[in-house]
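Sequence in, structure out.
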Amino acid sequence: MNRKTFVHAAGWSAASLMISVPFFTESASKIKAIAFDAFAIFDPVEIFKKIDELFPGKGKQIIDVWQSRQFTYQWLRVTANKYKNFDDVSKNALDFALAQSGVDLSEQEKKLILAKYETMNAWADVIPALQVLKKEGLMLCFLSNMTSKILHNGIRNSNLTEFFDHVISTDEKQTYKPSRMAYQLAIEKLKLRKEEILLVPFAGWDMAGATWFGYPTFWLNRLNTLQEELDAKPHGTGSNLNDLIEFIKSSR
């Protein structure tokens, strides 16, 4: 499956890396912690292999509808104060995608698909990069819409236990990014000012939300997607974690 079918996020391409001088001289040098979105660390491609296997020729359609509804349901539920956690919303979105595509799966088959979230592994560049970032004296954490269980499973699967100081799920406040309450969680958990926490989102909408909130942001644009028209630009962007390391080191 083409990974670009996973999230239609937004932003600049790695080739157009741009960092403002004021951010470098005044803000980046103050960074004490990095908060990663889950998919900046975990490769999502394994989640969808089962769908491709079950429905050759229809897999992309189902996946696209599933992911679109997943994010839409999260935001609608936050707006209407009708919260369900990431697991439940993912199940509802999958049910809708299958129904719209005119296909049927047993409950057991659906569970097998959804269970893939708990078997995710890290991208190939993650461990070497995290080793470097820890040597820089930075605190590392997740700030994700996924449940704490999914995040901890991914950490164990990928042998990342030694690197993460905190695992922060927005489920703790029964909300989702890009709500301000979700982004506030990192400040509360890390006990730092927002200017001292670099947010590393995977999706363009998350970059916009974090930037609106006031965080310095480095958009890890692994899928080389386009920028959303949301009046928000990251302070830096790149296609892999080596670009993030260069961004950090150049500010010190």
